[in-house]
Amino acid sequence: MLNWLGIVVGTLRSVLRTHRELALENLVLRQQLAVLMHRHPRPRLTHADRLFWVILSRALSGWRDCLHVVQPETVVRWHRKGFRYYWRRKSHRRGRPAIDPEIHTLIRRMCLANPLWGAPRIHGELLKLGIDVSEATVSKYMIKHRGPPSQTWRTFLENHAKELIALDFFTVPTATFRVLFVLVVLSHDRRRILHFNVTAHPTSGWTGRQLVEACGIDEAPRYLLRDRDAIYGGVFRRQAAALGIKEVPTAHRSPWQNPYAERVIGSIRRECLDHMVILGERHLKRVLASYADYYNRTRTHLSLAKDAPECRPIHSPEQGRVVELERVGGLHHEYVRMAA
Questions:
Q1: Same domain, 180 and 251
Q2: What contacts 245, CB < 8 A, 6 or more positions away?
Q3: Could you read off the pLDDT of 75-101 as tens digits, one per residue?
Q4: 34-37 contacts at long range (C-beta below 8 A, 24 or more positions apart)
Q5: What is the pLDDT of residues 13-67, one digit of tens each?
Q6: CA–CA separation, 137 vs 123, rounded Å?
Q7: How much is the average pLDDT of 194-209?
Q8: Are residues 208 and 135 in the same domain?
Q9: Long-range contacts of 309-318, Cβ-Cβ distance < 8 Å, separation of 24 or more
Q10: How far is CA 200 from the centre of its chain?
Q11: 130 and 262: one domain?
C-alpha cells in the first residue's frame, strides 16, 4: 500500500517539473530498471501490478512503449483472464438455484421404476404432481443407462403371467401301499389351482384330456411350462397343439425351472397330505378338492400381498364379531366377521 502511495505522490510531483527534469528522471529510472532485470530476470508481479497494467492499457494509447518487465501479449492475456473470471463469478452468483433434494430423489425413483421413460415423460409426470421444474433439469438428474432401456424381468413375467400355466405330477402312497399319481395344473397369474386329478395309471392320452378340462377350448393359455417326463408323449403334444398352446419344457433334471408348480406341490404335502393317511383314490380326490378350495379362496400368499388367489374381501370391525370356520377337515381355519 505504501509503495502505491509513493507512486501516486511521485506522479503528482512530476506534473510540476520541467520537460528536462522529467527526461533525466526517466533516464535514471530506466538505468535502475535495467540493473534490476539483470539481477532478477523474472520478477514476481502481484495481482495489483497486473491490475495496474490492465487499467493502463485501456487508458493510455502508447502503453506498449512503457513496457520493460512484461510483454504486451502478457498484459492482453491478463485482461482476457480477468474477463473470464469476472463472468464466472457473476454466473455463479446468479445461476439456477439448486432443486429440492426430495425432487432429485423423486426423479431418480421415476427413472429406475420406468426405464422406458425419457425426460419429457418424467417432466410431464412431475407437472401433474404440481412440481414445476424445467425439462433440462429433469434430464440433468436422470440416471444414465449404459445400454438401451429395458424392462425388468419381474415386469416381463408379470405381463405374460396370464398367458402361462404350469403342470406337474407327484405321487401319493395309500394305506394299502398303492401309489397314486396326482396331476396339478397351476395358473401363473394368481397362483390359482386350475385343475387336478388322480389316477393309478397315467398315460399320455389321459394327461391330454386333463389339459382340455383345465384350460377349456375358448380360453386356452398361450404357453405351458412342464418337465421332460415321458408321460407328455405324442398324444399330449398333439392335444396341446390343437388348443393353440406352445409347450415350454424345462431343462433335464431342473425342477427349479418350474418353481410355481413345485412350490404348490410342496404346500400340498406340508399342509395337507403329510398329516393324514390316504385310504384310496376317492379319498384322495375328496381331500385334494377340499385343500384346493382352501388354497384358492382362503390361504394368503406373500407374493399376492397377503391375499388369496381368488381375492378375499376385507371385513371391517363394523361387520360383526370374528367367527372361526373349519377348512380341510379342521386342519386349517378361516376367520371372518359375521353379524351377531
A1: yes
A2: 211, 215, 220, 221, 222, 223, 224
A3: 667 667 766 776 677 666 555 667 888
A4: 37/68, 37/69
A5: 666 567 666 666 666 666 556 656 656 666 666 666 666 656 666 665 555 555 5
A6: 9
A7: 95
A8: no
A9: 309/187, 309/190, 309/191, 309/192, 309/193, 310/190, 310/192
A10: 50
A11: no
Within 10 angstroms of residue 27's Cβ, the number of other Cβ atoms is: 10
In terms of residue numbers, what domain contains 110?
101-143
- Does 88 share its domain with 213? no
Closest to 227 measured CA to CA, from 145, 168, 303, 179: 168
Its sign, for the CA torsion 75, 80, 83, 88, is negative
**Closest by Cα among 169, 164, 168 to 190:** 164
Task: Provide the sign of the torsion angle of the four alpha carbons 56, 57, 60, 64, taken in this order.
Answer: positive
- Would 129 be classed as within a structural domain? yes
Q: Are residue 278 and residue 131 in the same domain, yes or no?
A: no
Tally of domains in the chain: 3
Question: Which pairing describes strands 246-249 and 223-226: parallel, antiparallel, or unpaired?
Answer: parallel
Give pLDDT tens digits for 249-263: 999 888 998 999 999
Task: Tell me how far apart the alpha carbons of residues 140 and 170 are, in angstroms, rounded to a whole number.
Answer: 56
Higher-pLDDT residue of 153 and 132 is 132
Question: H or E segment at 226?
Answer: strand 223-226
Q: Give one DSSP letter per residue of 156-175, joined into a string.
A: HHHHHGGGEEEEEEEEEE-T
**Whether residue 188 is found in the same domain as residue 307:** yes
What does 104-127 look like in DSSP terms, one character per residue?
HHHHHHHHHH-TT--HHHHHHHHH
Strand 223-226 versus strand 332-338 pairing type: unpaired
Collapsing DSSP to helix, strand or coil, 41 comes out as: coil
Task: Give the chain's length.
Answer: 340
How many CA within 13 A on the CB side of residue 173? 5
Residue 35 lies in a domain: no
